[in-house]
């Protein structure tokens, strides 16, 4: 878990800390059996109250790992000191049981386990001392039922662990959710900004490309020069392709009507279209559709989704590999699978899919999967990617079945 990520209301913190300090001081001054003895016990107690107070007051300004650790150690020493200094006050034993609970407040799992371990070691020493040296002289209430008290102590540690486990799980979930929201907000803003910039760039590009095409045909230029112009036009085409793909994400919704789409027909036309692309590397595309597969989507966008995914599958395949495309009904859903036996992806690569401009291809745009995720989400579908390096990839797309009648 990330530390320092949980912020708290400082005003409330200070009010509570001052109340704690007041309680500690009153314990020192009001009816204290060691008061007036001016011995080591009273001075040590005062010093511990002072150090713990300073640490607690410093924490909001300097919330470092070291300070957190110091607070836990000082608090442990403080409560054990109370137990040893005031054996007649039996309730100090309760505090010993609850020391690890303090570290839950810092939302730091390592610190919690440290505190739990430290407490177990210290209580074992204390019980050992009572059993072998004290023998009920100062701690009769513990010595009378040593085993019972020890079991109670263990039970209290388990309860604290349980509270920690539940709190920690919930905080972790909240943390992930919060990070996801931040991430998508960032993507949304950068996406909108980039779309605006892309749109502005497209016009000058068209002008430059137009002139280059003119020069390319102009006989006054040498063949070598014309070769350069062709190269420049090619590069501009690539740039245009990236921009068009990018802008297709930012298109206003009203252009894209939602209609009943027959998956079988679309898959047939897409696989026909990509057939020749597959033949470049001797890859065959095999299509298997079973049952009536109608979904509610926009035909053009649905085609774009399938083209991107099947193209990726072909590009990942080695020469001669088969790309299998299946579609069928599963409960209330239409399930489409694109299966390749190509290079596959690692877990980290799969996790990066959909990130703008993430591409491992020399001529890739890194926008294909991002567009796919957008389209799938828009028509209330889901997309799952299973991949293993060297074995291939299976992309599973699910859309709710739509009754054609
Ligand atoms: P592009 O195809 O332009 O590179 P995409 O967003 O379509 O962009 O894909 C991003 C990257 O994901 C690809 O560069 C490729 O490395 C990886 N990828 C996508 N599909 C597959 C697949 N079926 N097998 C292996 N890698 C894939
Ligand atoms: Mg692609």
Task: Map the helices and strands.
Blueprint: H1 10-29, H2 40-58, H3 65-85, H4 92-97, H5 99-104, H6 109-134, H7 140-143, H8 146-217, H9 223-249, E1 259-262, H10 263-279, E2 284-289, E3 294-297, H11 299-316, E4 322-330, E5 333-340, H12 347-352, H13 368-378, E6 382-388, E7 392-400
Parallel strand pairs: 2-4
Antiparallel strand pairs: 1-3, 4-5, 5-7, 6-7
The site of magnesium ion has 4 residues, from helix 11.
Short account of what is shown:
This protein has 13 helices and seven strands. The chain is α+β, with helices and mostly antiparallel strands. The structure holds adenosine-5'-diphosphate and magnesium ion.
What do you see in this structure?
This protein is an alpha+beta fold and 405 residues long. It has 3 domains: 143 residues, no CATH class; 59 residues; 142 residues, 2-Layer Sandwich (Heat Shock Protein 90). The protein contains 13 helices and 7 strands. Helix 6 runs antiparallel to helix 8, helix 9 runs parallel beside helix 13 and helix 10 runs parallel beside helix 11. The longest helix is centred in the middle third of the chain and has 72 residues. It is elongated, with a radius of gyration of 35 Å. It starts with 9 loop residues before the first helix and ends in a 5-residue tail after the last strand. The site of magnesium ion has 4 residues, from helix 11.
């Amino acid at each position: 878990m990330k530390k320092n990520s949980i912020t708290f209301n400082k005003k409330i913190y200070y009010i509570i800390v001052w109340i704690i300090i007041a309680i500690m001081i009153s314990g020192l001054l009001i009816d204290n059996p060691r008061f007036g003895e001016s011995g080591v016990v009273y001075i040590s107690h005062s010093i511990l109250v002072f150090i713990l107070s300073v640490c607690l007051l410093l924490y909001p300004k300097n919330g470092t790992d070291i300070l957190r650790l110091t607070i836990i150690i000082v608090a442990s020493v403080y409560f054990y000191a109370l137990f040893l200094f005031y054996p007649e006050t039996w309730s100090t034993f309760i505090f010993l049981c609850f020391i690890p609970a303090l570290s839950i407040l810092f939302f730091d799992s390592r610190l919690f386990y440290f505190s739990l371990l430290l407490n177990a070691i210290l209580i074992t020493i204390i019980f050992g001392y009572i059993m072998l040296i004290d023998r009920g002289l100062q701690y009769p209430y513990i010595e009378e039922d040593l085993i019972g008290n020890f079991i109670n102590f263990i039970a209290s540690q388990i309860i604290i662990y349980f509270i920690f486990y539940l709190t920690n799980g919930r905080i972790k979930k909240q943390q992930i959710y919060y990070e996801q929201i931040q991430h998508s907000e960032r993507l949304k803003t950068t996406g909108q900004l980039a779309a605006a910039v892309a749109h502005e760039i497209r016009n000058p590009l068209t002008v430059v490309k137009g002139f280059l095409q003119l020069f390319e045909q102009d006989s006054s230029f040498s063949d070598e020069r014309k070769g350069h112009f062709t190269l420049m036009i090619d590069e501009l085409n690539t740039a245009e392709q990236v921009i068009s793909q990018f802008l297709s994400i930012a298109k206003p919704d009203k252009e894209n009507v939602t209609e009943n789409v027959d998956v079988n027909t679309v898959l047939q036309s897409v696989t026909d279209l990509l057939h020749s692309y597959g033949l470049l590397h001797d890859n065959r595309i095999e299509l298997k559709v079973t049952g009536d597969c109608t979904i509610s989507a926009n035909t053009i966008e649905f085609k774009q989704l399938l083209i991107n995914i099947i193209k990726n599958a072909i590009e990942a395949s080695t020469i001669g590999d088969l790309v299998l495309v299946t579609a069928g009904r599963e409960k209330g859903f239409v399930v489409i699978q694109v299966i390749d036996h190509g290079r596959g992806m690692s877990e980290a690569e799969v996790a990066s899919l959909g990130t703008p401009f993430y591409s491992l291809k020399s001529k890739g745009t890194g926008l294909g999967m991002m567009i796919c995720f957008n389209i799938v989400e828009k028509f209330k579908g889901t997309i799952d990617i299973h991949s293993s390096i060297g074995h291939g990839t299976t992309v599973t797309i699910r859309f709710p079945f739509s009754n054609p009648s």
